[in-house]
Design brief:
Helix content is about 70%, strand content about 0%. The chain contains 1 helix and no strands.
């Protein structure tokens, strides 16, 4: 039998896969935080919105 001589390639691939998993996990975490911040900002904006109808500024036909 021929011995396996490309063990360095296998470890590099395993390392790359681990790095890719870490990167994807970090990206998912950032997206989760981004959604949370967006929801909080939208909730704050909805509470402070002024009413659309103002009787003093109503147009009279």
């Amino acid at each position: 039998m021929t011995p396996i001589t490309n063990t360095a390639r296998v470890t590099t691939t395993a390392s790359t896969t681990t790095d890719a998993e870490k990167l994807l996990r970090d990206m998912a975490y950032v997206l989760k935080l981004t959604r949370r911040v967006k929801e909080e900002m939208s909730a704050d904006r909805a509470q402070t919105q002024t009413p659309a109808t103002n009787p003093e500024r109503a147009l009279v036909a």
